[in-house]
Automatic annotation (TrEMBL):
SUPFAM superfamilies: Glutathione synthetase ATP-binding domain-like, Phosphoenolpyruvate/pyruvate domain, Phosphohistidine domain. The lineage of its organism: Bacteria, Bacillati, Actinomycetota, Actinomycetes, Streptosporangiales. InterPro entries: ATP_grasp_subdomain_1 (IPR013815), PEP-util_enz_mobile_dom (IPR008279), PEP_util_AS (IPR018274), PEP_util_C (IPR000121), Phosphohistidine_dom_sf (IPR036637), PPDK_AMP/ATP-bd (IPR002192), Pyruvate_phosphate_dikinase (IPR010121), Pyrv/PenolPyrv_kinase-like_dom (IPR015813). Its EC number is 2.7.9.1. Residues 61-285, 292-343 form the Pyruvate phosphate dikinase AMP/ATP-binding domain. This is Pyruvate, phosphate dikinase. Its cofactor is Mg(2+). Keywords: ATP-binding, Kinase, Magnesium, Metal-binding, Nucleotide-binding, Pyruvate, Transferase.
Amino acid sequence: MAKFVYDFTEGNKDLKDLLGGKGANLAEMTNLGLPVPPGFTITTEACRHYLEHGGLPDGLEDEVDRHLAELERAMGKRLGQSDDPLLVSVRSGAKFSMPGMMETVLNVGLNDESVHGLAAQAGDERFAWDSYRRLIQMFGGTVLGIEGELFEDAVEAAKKARGTNDDVDLTAEDFKDLVERFKAIVREQAGREFPTDPREQMDLAVRAVFDSWNAPRAILYRRQERIPVDLGTAVNICSMVFGNLGMDSGTGVAFTRDPASGQQGIYGDYLQNAQGEDVVAGIRNTVPLTELERLDKASYDQLLQIMEKLENHYLDMCDIEFTIERGKLWMLQTRVGKRTAAAAFRIACQLLDQGLIDADEAARRVKGDQLAQLMFPRFTSTTDGITKLTRGMNASPGAAVGKVVFTSARAVELAERGEDVILVRRETNPDDLAGMMAARGVLTSRGGKTSHAAVVARGMGKTCVCGAEELDVDVKAGRFTAPDGTTVTEGDVISIDGSSGDVYLGEVPVEDSPVVRYFEGELAVADGDDLVKAVDRLMRHADGRAALAVRANADNPEDAARARRFGARGIGLCRTEHMFLGDRRRLVEALILAEDDAERQAALDALEPLQRSDFEGIFAAMDGLPVTIRLIDPPLHEFLPDLTELSVKVALAGDGADPRDRRLLEAVNRLHEQNPMLGLRGVRLGLVIPGLFSMQVRAIAEAAAARRNAGGDPRPEIMIPLVGAVQELEAVRDEARGILADVARETGVDVPALIGTMIELPRAALTAGQIAEAAEFFSFGTNDLTQTTWGFSRDDVEAAFFSRYLELGIFGASPFETLDRDGVGRLVRIAAEEGRRARPGLKLGICGEHGGDPDSVHFCHEVGLDYVSCSPFRVPVARLEAGRAAI
Ligand code: PEP
Ligand code: MG
């Protein structure tokens, strides 16, 4: 029979799937001999059963009974025992840390009798009643779904009656009254009494944690972080220790290195006389952890020892939560800590230098997405003439500029209209998740680097300044005031610097990041800081490991040159239609309007030299490296004016309409298609419009000959789009070969050019064995292949219904962003295998958008492609991921 409950002594850190991150790490710490309050974990499997069947699995209750009895024996007291109660916390803990869930009920086991027992044992009446009211408050919110504000208002009223602003001034009597008031709130709102049976409290809390897996904010968080929908959460039941038993008690969070910068040192926040949630919720301002040395040296020293032990054990930066109860230190949680992109690169190299990990492991510790973040621009260093409003804590780096908004809903609303916004709050809570996602940056006036805002923003890679205490934020009035008296209201523009913590009024200009300057070759590694050095070191290691080459999608010499500086080993896709835009559109119009061969040839003759000079520039920029040039692909109507606009223009002009417009309108009508994406485009154009492909091939061959004559080393590859049958390819290939031979004869220069095809239709993938007979290379056009495999219009569906699909979990990420391994990926595999079987050594690449997506790069490595091709700015990301995929 399945085992649903694990004592902390039974698990270990590798059981995250089953015990969740928190449970697995509590077990690991227990087994390391660290001071962890005893407890047990109910597995994610039990949760999955509960969510699927709407009830607890058979046997779970018995198992919980047994583990609870053991816990009671170990602690020498029973749950809720009236003269000396065992109290427990009930906490969620999924495999991946999810600040969007965070269901926690503390002090379970208190009731009208045991509260006296707790008071007697602690020798502190006020503490006991405070703990009791906290239980009802948390239970009311989490388990019974009562609006938190109702409880908070009651606390505010009590404070007002006492003439104070601070919880600390409330007395035992005040808390007793609050307990009664809270019970009444429960009665009114939930239509039931607050359950006083300790076991019932615990069981209901467990179910509430299970249910929280499907809370809207948890769903939203999972979608953002691409966490699978069906993992479920574990529940940790842990005996309570108290940080609110006086000034010799407290609670804190710590990092073994700075999660923002990666620097070594002591980082964390501590709050005297407080219970766990107070720190993370950012409700009260904390003191830096180093203060603890003065407050309680023994606990501080012990904590530092434990932190070192944890780092050496996990071989990584860890974050921890701890509580000190009357001078005794307890560890409540640890995990490998979330960190910013810069910290990830720095820490990986520090651990490498310390000999704790090897270079492969260091490369595993950094991600392409993090590298992408480091390439974002940042504020210029000169901010003369710009008003600095204040400096808060540098919680999550980046440079964000936007209009101030004070609520999550407003942030979403303005962002949907395309505005950049900065969400300003006193503190954030999980309900602000949607607003945080929509905002460019987040600014809070309260809470430390471990507050909700900071942790979540770092996870999202979003700029965040927190704890800007000098700001007086009035969310209800929609304004905040800076120390110099400046008042900022909704809609005013501010700039926040997540690396320094500075907050400015107005827009601060931005400049290139040093990492981009390093890639550009403008900043020598020796002149860069330790971040640039770390990036350089890990990039070089990744390049050394990668099996996949990285090319770029580029169609002009500037992009090609940049791609090369960024490390591209060639061009995987040059979209020639991009050379037909701007002024040249008229020439394409002339081609479409041509009424006879002579007119058509004249139009082509006008286009050819322009194409040739484009190609020459690109060959020069990519000298010695392959350049894959794709012949024209899109339907020709894309080069003509809009049908409706032109019809109106011609109709309004009546008899006086320009004859050219009339001809254009006729052509637009003629070329109009219901489904242009499935219509006259790609290879079909080449077969239908005489001379079009030939002109392009001639331009390529002449450009290559010219480069060769100039001493260059051009390496053209000619690529035919949208092929579905080998016969299409054969026809075009034969024509192209003829032209290559003509040009070689005419110029006396023979530049070999491979002729290959895109695989972007299911039929092409399924007949790849035949197509390979006529193709010298394949390049997977996974944009069209995704479109045609799913039957999703790539231009329409993302806006139309993907958000609903993501919500329903039909896919975890848009298949246009991350390659759908099961469907589209299967076609890629089939084509790769059958293509190579027919033509051993067939060169295989990918040039759809997926070429720059980390997960898709890993897939391409697994399938054994030769290269991925992506936009120039993604080239470093793809290089890093290509290396990581090979490790
Ligand atoms: C593709 O379809 O994946 C591709 C690269 O071609 P395009 O995006 O130009 O259709
Ligand atoms: Mg395509």
